[in-house]
Amino acid sequence: MPSVKNIRPIISLVSSEDSQVRAFVGGTAVLPDRLLENSFVEFSQGKIRKISAIPKRIRSDIEVIDATGNYVTPGMIDIHVHGGAGADFMDGTHDAVAKACEAHLLHGVTTIFPTTTTGSESSIYAMMQAVASVRKESLSVNHDATLLPHVEGIHLYGPYFTPEKSGCHKKDRCRTPVRSEFESYFKTGLVKIATCAAELPGCVDFYRYAKKRGCLVTCGHSNASWSEMAAAHKAGMSHVDHFWCAMSSVASVRSRLGPPMQGSMLEFVLGHPTMSTEVIADGQHLAPELLEFAWRMKGPRMLCLVSDTSRAMDMPLGKYAFGNSSENIWIYNDGKVGRSEEGGLASSVVGLDHCVRHTASATEIPLVDVIRMATLTPAERAGIDQQTGSIEVGKRADLLLLSKKLFVKRVVRAMAEPEVR
Ligand SMILES: [Zn+2]
Ligand SMILES: [Zn+2]
Fold first, then answer.
1. What does 92-133 look like in DSSP terms, one character per residue?
2. Which of 228, 224, 216, 221 is nearest to 242 (CA)?
3. Of 90, 105, 316, 378, which has the fewest Cβ atoms less than 10 A away?
4. Could you tell me the distance, in angstroms and rounded to a whole number, from the CA of residue 345 to the centre of ligand 1?
5. How far is ligand 1, taken at its centre, from the CA of residue 349, in Å?
6. How far is the centre of ligand 2, averaged over its atoms, from the C-alpha of 65 (Å)?
7. Is residue 183's pLDDT more than 80?
8. What's the start-to-end Cα distance of the chain, in Å?
9. Residue 143 DSSP SS3
10. How far is the CA of 155 from the centre of ligand 1 (A)?
11. Which residue segments constitute the domains of the chain, with CATH numbers given?
12. CA dist., res. 189 & res. 132, Å (int)
């Protein structure tokens, strides 16, 4: 189990009322555009106050956190994640959502977007209610019983997939978007990322609706052609879920629509600078050359790292329900990845910290870009980069201390008042 080699990190929550000034001193700070060695990163009242080289004299009232020999990075942001520590967000209870969220905080994820599957309307709604309740708890300054990341919003991922590209999701649970269903999800005010396959009837209405509500609008589990992608892009879709996984290729569009061969989601994303995407960087879904290729083609500003992890994260080998157990989808955690009953890939079993370590060690991508793709880029794509995602003065003090090998040693999670988008 790669993810449990982590030593449990120290977690601190710093509230906006906490006036104690603290600073990470002597570490290599990973800034959006460069590494700053021998750095001084000061924070108080839940916000980053100063970034500089180590000053000649450090005020005696500052609590120094020795960061020598380590990296200081922004907290990670996972925009595509199903669960962890035995709990799936689709379990739909407060306890399950809190358990999975807490597990990800230990993996350095300070901001999380719980992700839905192709569950029934009532189970998706129950999940959203449970997320709302955990989000409320996460905003309370007095919660020290459970350590939670910022629950910034929900990724409405399933159910609007095409059955042809359902992956491990049940084909007969994939459905087309209809307002009477999706409107109730958006009315919770929690949906910040919204997925729909671009060839489904009603998709343009869905995209426009989600875009109007400020969501990152995405296409996933789809066999869409170039022209369907173009119509979707015009309606506000600007991101594709887990590049290369459960998406169209020239060959798959040809088998669906016949000749002439047409562009697919792949060419559309690579051909449009305004399209972003994400890679499951667990080392099992994609070979290193694909991670590097995606970075070379899209650049670090339009490519996110995601874990797409399931409840099997931090759990022993064995069989686990994917989504709510009533969906009757079972995956096998073989210690490296989740496998469907047919043996196909079915979600990862590691946290985003593992994805960062893997990408940094298996590819030529510079560390600044690797960290950006797990922090600032997802923040920008999800529209929360004014609050978090990088070490910049005025942003929330969501900070990590990572060892030279990028293991999470310490997590600082700010309790600064959330700004309304
Ligand atoms: Zn998927
Ligand atoms: Zn997924």
1. -SHHHHHHHHHHHHHTTEEEEEEB--S--HHHHHHHHHHHHH
2. 221
3. 316
4. 10
5. 14
6. 37
7. yes
8. 38
9. coil
10. 12
11. 2-73+397-415 (2.30.40.10), 74-382 (3.20.20.140)
12. 9
For residue range 281-335, list pLDDT tens digits in order: 999 999 999 999 999 999 999 999 999 999 999 999 999 999 999 999 999 999 9
Per-residue pLDDT at 416: 58
Surrounding residues of ion ligand 2, Cβ less than 5 A: 308
**pLDDT greater than 90 at residue 140:** no
Residue with tokens 């609007």: 160
65: confidence class by pLDDT, cuts 50, 70, 90: very high
* Helices 226-234 and 203-212, packing angle to 10 deg: 30
Distance 243 CA to ligand 1 centre (A): 10
Q: Residue 95: how many CA atoms within 13 Å on its side-chain side?
A: 1
Per-residue pLDDT at 144 exceeds 60: no
Distance 129 CA to ligand 1 centre (A): 22
Identify the nearest ligand to the CA of 82 by its number.
Answer: 2
Residue type, 85: A
Q: Which ligand is nearest to the CA of 79?
A: 2
Q: How far apart are CA 46 and CA 412, in angstroms?
A: 9
Percent pLDDT > 90 in the chain is 90
